Amino acid sequence: MKKYLGFIAATFLLVEGFGIGAAIAGSQYGAVATGPNGAYGWAYNFDSAEGAKQYALSACEGSCTEVVTFSNGCAAVAKGGGYFGWAAATDETTAKNNALGYCGNDSCAIQVWACTDH
């Protein structure tokens, strides 16, 4: 089951109390994890790559063994026919297409993907 996890934004408005101020977003990290029998987990919008990795592993619905971390963008993992491919990119479509391309088998399908908010 694929779930929409977020979309990339380069900057955002920060609203605090009654005031509005512009702020440039800092680095955000995410991770996608996969394992046997379709197990997967994901994380996005973490302050550290390690935090995202640990959350993705803990959110895994099974026993995840492969983890891909990324920052300020998207990542996807594809599997099929005993093959495995992953990619990170600035947008969801590119990450998914590249993961499928790196997987190297026509039976490959996207298993999990995630994007940070910027």
UniProtKB/TrEMBL annotation:
Start and end residues of each DUF4189 domain: 29-115
A Pfam family annotated for this UniProt entry: DUF4189
Name of the protein in its database record: DUF4189 domain-containing protein
Origin species: Pseudanabaena yagii GIHE-NHR1
